[in-house]
Design brief:
The chain is of the alpha/beta class and about 800 residues long. Helix 18 (about 485-495) packs across helix 20 (about 510-520). Bound molecules: zinc ion (ZN) (2 copies).
Length: about 800
């Protein structure tokens, strides 16, 4: 959710001037000197080292805005309100989407960062509220912060009788009843809709009966398992509205994505028209692909401290082959800040963001003492006051550089930056463009740099720019038919009102089977009038999947809450003994209490970093589909995966040397999910020249690279998927490589890999073969999260294995 504030800027102004008084989202750039031109800046950056790290420069041209007249149906009162905010006329795409929605069609507007998507839904929704004094609007945002921003924007229009209000977990009880009865523009999030509004639908009957529009903002964030849950929450909303006789129009706003109409249709269950032609103006971007240099093969230089200092994504027990992307990004950030260029660096892990900020600060202070104060780290887990302070500093120019995770949740419009550094491919082209879209303000030229990590996908991309610049952005993947989502959602629906056969079509494929299973399990009872929930308590269903509740990090001496870590990462980051970084300050974890969701830490600066390890076991439950290709078999099916974080290594920060490995006593996690796997006959391996003793290393290396390349074809993150390889698996009785979805019931990734297996494995094979290393490195066959310490691995045999698969598999 790297761009939750992106559509907050109403950019529908032929003139670039913005009224600072009435603007909902001030740009950060007032009066700031933009520094050198992007092309000159890039030339200076690349001239720094010995070789040229830039593998490609793409020039993304500027775009001229296309304004449109106000639609005839837009009341003058509303036009005047927007004019007061500086919006003289809408852009073409805003007017088109608004009119489609006003005419009663479901519509998704999927355009770039800062293209002013909010006007597209504000216009029809507010026009309807002004025309019909009884009508209501429900607005959904993925985060409370975005809902609060939207509240400011709508309230700032000062329209009589609209009475906009946020309704979320923070809303005081005393205000809730007033909101239910009197607000006509309620802003909330899917979790509150699921946990609060739908279960309490009788209290909301007046609001739902008159519901004219449902606005779903930043809807591309509803993907994977979370997206599948939200899809059913929306179906439950539609069901309740229908009971009260309302059929609201859905208006969705999305970042640029592939096939948005289909994704929006899957999310809402309704036919949706897409508006994708972005008519807002933007400046040109110079986009560079940057590969950190290889360190000399017999380098005696120690591994870089930046990486050893804590990016747990990084495999630092290996000989460092390339300079770390974190170190490179920190240097680039220091260089751009020194040039007075306002720069945002996106770093994938929270630890990484802290490390980049710390190193950039240090480098700047070495040059000019005190200059380091103009760089800070930012991530989602910070407390509200800390976030506000960083935002304020950036707004006023006290800060010039910010290293952030993708979970950027700033309450200010951060579009007006001069440069964006992207440390590591963010997983999808859609995210890449979202992040790059932060650069460039008021039509000015900007610089974007993708710094490749030592990773097969990143390495592949910086050498295949056509895979970035010549390919369309990915579609948002979600699967409402996932039985692990469908069954609990049907249980929630049954509590809200008994399910009837007429509901089956609403909930889609698999609904009947899921209901039958709920009946069999004793959760539902079938009566002539429908299926009834049998229990006293409501089912407990978490929309965010198995990640679990966030774990609080508390300093034991003071009781101070330092921040939070999501449940899924807590075993890795907060195990007893873990070194945890917060704003560059180092803490050591004393205790992780999983029952209370709390980790106790104390401030300490040891000279080692910690790196957690896990072990995995897998068994095949059923085969859904397979391809018999002679000596090769390709399969899709259900598997059971058991994994456990079992130990951690302590490594010397200065040298990367492993001090020791310590055992951990954390519970196992069980996962039934979907996997894709391939098998090879031992004979085919022998004839391809793979010695028997090398089979485990060959499969293991192929597995690592295949996981690394999967995000190229499925909209997932390397960390969303897992793998396992073995020279003889008891269930397949053959040498086998498994790749599985890391979410219960699957999230559609393995399925996509199965559907595009030859393209996926071809890219995998090429990535390994084209890597300049001799025996394997993190850019090809080594994995940062290998439970076996990247042993054994055989790079040349991995190519042979994949050749056998590709020769036999039908394209
Ligand atoms: Zn390599
Ligand atoms: Zn491994």
């Amino acid at each position: 959710m790297q761009d939750v504030t992106s559509n907050d800027s109403i950019s529908a102004r032929p003139t670039p001037r913005r009224d600072p008084e009435s603007s909902a989202a001030p740009t950060v750039s007032a009066g700031h000197d933009p520094g050198p031109a992007p092309v000159d800046l890039l030339r200076r950056l690349r001239a720094r080292g010995a070789g040229d790290p830039v593998t490609h420069v793409e020039r993304v041209p500027a775009r001229v805005g296309v304004p449109a007249p106000w639609p005839a149906w837009a009341p003058s009162e509303l036009r005047a309100a927007f004019a007061r905010r500086g919006v003289v006329a809408p852009w073409q795409h805003q007017a088109e989407a608004a009119t489609l929605a006003y005419d009663g069609g479901h519509v998704i507007v999927a355009t770039g960062t800062a293209s002013g998507k909010s006007l597209a839904y504000q216009l029809p929704a507010l026009a309807t509220l002004l025309a019909d004094p009884r009508a209501t609007v429900l607005y959904l945002a993925p985060t409370k912060a975005l809902a609060a921003d939207q509240l400011r924007a709508v309230a700032g229009l000062d329209l009589e009788g609209v009475r906009p209000a946020c309704y979320d977990g923070d809303t005081p009880r005393a205000e809730r009843e007033w909101i239910r009865r009197h607000s006509r523009f309620v802003l909330t999030n899917p979790d509150m809709l699921h946990h609060g509004i739908l279960p309490g639908h009788s209290q909301w009957s007046g609001f739902l009966r008159r519901l004219a529009y449902v606005v779903i903002d930043e809807c591309h964030t509803y993907r994977g398992v979370f997206g599948s849950h939200v899809a059913h929450v929306l179906r439950r909303l539609r069901r309740q509205c229908a009971r009260f006789g309302a059929t609201p129009v859905f208006v969705l706003a999305s970042a640029t994505s592939g096939d948005p109409a289909t994704a929006a249709g899957r999310l809402t269950g309704l036919p949706v028209t897409a508006v994708t032609e972005d008519a807002s103006p933007r400046g040109g971007v110079t986009f560079a692909l940057w590969e950190p240099p290889l360190l000399p093969p017999d380098s005696t230089s120690p591994p870089v401290p930046a990486q050893a200092a804590g990016d747990h994504d990084a495999a630092t027990d290996l000989v460092q082959v390339r300079r770390s992307a974190l170190r490179e990004t920190a240097d680039l950030l220091a260089d751009t800040v020194a040039e007075g260029v306002r720069t945002l660096a996106f770093v994938r892990s929270r630890k990484g963001a802290e490390v980049v900020a710390t190193n950039a600060r240090r480098a700047l202070d070495d040059a000019v003492p005190g200059l380091g104060d103009r760089v800070a780290a930012y991530r989602g887990g910070y407390l509200r006051e800390e976030r506000r302070e960083l935002e304020r500093a950036l707004l006023h120019g006290d800060l010039l550089g910010l290293a952030s995770t993708n979970a950027l949740e700033l309450g200010v419009d951060l579009v007006g930056l001069d440069a964006v550094l992207i440390c590591g491919y963010p997983g999808t082209r859609a995210s890449l463009w979202q992040q790059a879209g932060r650069a460039g303000r008021s039509g000015q030229e900007a610089l974007a740099v993708l710094v490749a990590r030592d990773d097969p996908l990143d390495t592949y991309l910086v050498h295949h720019p056509e895979a970035i610049f010549g390919a369309p952005v990915e579609a948002t993947v979600l699967d409402p038919a996932n039985p692990y989502v469908l069954a609990p959602q049907l249980a929630c629906a049954a509590v809200e009102a008994p399910l009837t056969p007429a509901d089956l079509a609403l909930f889609g494929d698999g609904a009947k089977e899921a209901i039958d299973q709920l009946v069999e399990a004793g959760a539902l009872r079938q009566r002539p009038t429908g299926w009834y929930w049998r229990h006293r308590e409501r089912p407990e269903v978490d929309l965010r999947g198995e990640g679990g509740a966030p774990v609080c990090v508390v300093e034991s001496a003071t009781g101070r809450l330092l921040g939070t870590v999501d449940g899924g990462s807590s075993h890795f980051l907060l195990h007893p003994g873990a070194v945890y970084l917060h704003q560059g300050v180092s803490y050591v974890v004393d205790d992780l209490d999983l029952a209370d969701g709390c980790a106790l830490v104390h401030a300490e600066e040891p000279d080692w970093s910690t790196h957690a390890r896990d072990v995995t076991d897998l068994s095949v439950v059923s085969v859904r589909s397979y391809v018999d290709a002679g000596p090769v078999g390709m399969f899709l099916g259900e598997v059971d995966v058991t994994s456990q974080v079992v130990s951690y290594q302590r490594r010397r920060i200065a040298t990367g040397e492993v001090i020791d490995t310590r055992p951990l006593d954390l519970p196992t996690r069980e996962l039934r999910t979907v996997a894709v796997w391939f098998t090879l006959s031992p004979r085919s391996l022998t004839s391809a020249g793979v010695q028997q003793a090398d089979v485990p290393g060959a499969l293991h290396a192929a597995e690592h690279a295949a996981i690394g390349l999967l995000p190229l074809i499925a909209t997932c993150d390397r960390w969303d998927i897992g793998g396992l390889s073995t020279a003889l698996h008891p269930d397949t009785e053959a040498p086998t490589v498994f790749v599985y979805d890391g979410h219960p019931g699957g999230a559609g990734f393995a399925e996509r890999a199965y559907g595009t297996a030859s393209a996926w494995l071809r890219a995998t094979r090429d990535a390994i073969a084209e890597c300049g290393c001799e025996t394997g490195c993190p850019s090809c066959v080594q994995s940062p999260k290998c439970g076996n310490g990247n042993n054994p691995l055989s790079k040349p045999d991995a190519i042979r294995v994949l050749d056998v698969v590709l020769e036999n598999l039908p394209a």
